[in-house]
Amino acid sequence: MTSTTQRPPAPGSAAELAAFATLQQRLPELFQRVANDDRADHTVVVVPSLSMDPRELAKVSGVHHYEERLLFYLMLLRKPRTRVIFLTSQRISPTVIDYYLHLLTGVPTSHARRRLIMFECGDASNRPLTQKVLERPRLLKRILRAIGDTSRAHIVCFNSTRFERSLAVQLGIPLYANDPALDDLGSKSGCREVFREAGILFPRGFERLRTPEDIAEGLAALKTETPDLRRAVVKLNEGFSGEGNALFYFDGVDGATATERARQCLERLPTLRFEAPQEHWESFKTKYAQMGGVVEEFVEGKHKESPSSQCRVNARGAPQSISTHDQILGGPSGQVFMGCTFPARSEYRMEVQEAGMRVARVLASKGVIGRFATDFVSVPDGDGGWTHHAIEVNLRKGGTTHPFLTLRFLTDGHYEPASGTFQSQTGQEKVYFATDTLQDEVYRGLLPEDLIDIAVCNDVHFHSAPERGVVFHLMGALSEYGKLGMVCIGDNLQQARFLYKQTKNILDRETGNPSAG
């Protein structure tokens, strides 16, 4: 939107792609200026759009409130010349905004509030927020006027797609995220190819599949290679938080030839066991044909962990390790993300970090920038160590992003790659337990004001002096869905877990949960 009269280039056109590439060339200089001067004039446009397949997002309870997970970016207002423009589908409760602003230290709330501009679309549909913004030219003009000097502004987002690219071009500011042209690298098929190039271990399987026959042939080939294989995973390329996965059991697949085994697998595909409770074969088959997917062996083990390595490629193209986590998984077969602990277990966190960095170097060589995570399934190797199987790359922000950045912004501390730990400014090691999925029917009807009152009266909110306590998110989902997120920050994992259990017990008691102890 270079002027009020010039029409923007058509989405996906050569003109738009060229304009986007030109904008992205401004990122290194912009980030160098901001990194060197905390008082530099700077505007961050936060676009918390979950620009993903609406059918997959519909599987997540209260998903339209997940835009609130990026409210941690309000903590950038600690820098006295930074402005934040935050876009949402619907209006966020002022109580929630006040909650985040009061977490700021060293800056008066009134000063921070003057530098925060909120825009909402007034649209509760399940379409991506960025698409809604693009459909509102008058809103775009208001956002552009609020930005002012476009040479000192950039966009941050949850994930980058053609919509975010078009928004960057129409606003005339760069996007600190992956070029959408490279998004396939983060698909289930694309990440298997990245793992192969990085030379790290990942489950045997097949990618770039489309049809039921493709799935059946892949399953049969796995069974041929490993006759005692019990089960395999069928994944949609664009599945979200494990909800696009399904388990296939090989019971009764005993054909004498590969052709016969493939026929038996094809007949059994309607019996796939889906992680999403509302999913079924006919729907899954349609989405698989549209977006493609993979088939791979299911990593078995009596004891399994699910660590994750978070990395980023900065604006200058340098890959960096920024954290490790142990994921907490649930769902019918333990493939759905429920929460995480930071850092990952000491006995393997450095191994996971190194494997993640190998992936990061490959992605950086292909032009990826921004944050991403490589997820693993880890099993004991029988010799006192662990074997790590790379499962997927989330080429976007994820469930581990906002807890870590919340910790970093609150404490102004730093991650130590040499030890895989986080140190506050006082030198105290900090850890956390985080979840997006604390949910109970008895919590329904609680407003953000009620939650904050409960937390303050029971002294479980975050305290800046000891840098310890609970930070809430997804508060907008509480009243309608009884769903809440929290980051429980402590000096050790036992303390962080205790904070979670204590807070849950308090909520149960305050809401009359009959199961409360």
Q: Count the beta strands.
A: 19
CATH homologous superfamily heading of the largest domain? ATP-grasp fold, B domain
- Gap from first CA to last CA: 58 Å
Helix content: 25-40%
CATH architecture of the largest domain: 2-Layer Sandwich
Characterization of the model:
The protein has 517 residues and is α+β, with helices and mostly antiparallel strands. Strands 10, 11, 12, 13, 14, 15, 16, 17, 18 and 19 form a ten-stranded antiparallel sheet that branches. The protein is built from 17 helices and 19 strands. The chain folds into three domains: 14-177, 3-Layer(aba) Sandwich (Rossmann fold); 204-297, no CATH class; 307-511, 2-Layer Sandwich (D-amino Acid Aminotransferase, Chain A, domain 1). It has helices at 14-24, 27-36, 54-57, 94-101, 109-114, 129-134, 137-147, 162-171, 188-198, 212-225, 258-268, 281-291, 349-365, 401-411, 448-457, 478-481, 493-511, and strands at residues 42-47, 82-88, 116-120, 153-157, 205-209, 231-236, 245-249, 273-274, 293-297, 307-313, 319-330, 336-342, 370-380, 386-394, 414-416, 421-423, 429-439, 469-473, 483-490. β11 and β12 (336-342) form a beta hairpin.
Give the key terms.
D-amino Acid Aminotransferase, Chain A, domain 1; Rossmann fold; alpha+beta; 517 residues; globular; 19 strands; 10-stranded antiparallel sheet; 5-stranded antiparallel sheet
Task: Give a quick rundown of the structure.
With 517 residues, the protein is α+β, with helices and mostly antiparallel strands. The protein has three domains: 14-177, Rossmann fold (3-Layer(aba) Sandwich); 204-297, no CATH class; 307-511, ATP-grasp fold, B domain (D-amino Acid Aminotransferase, Chain A, domain 1, 2-Layer Sandwich), CATH 3.30.470.20. It is 34% helix and 24% strand.
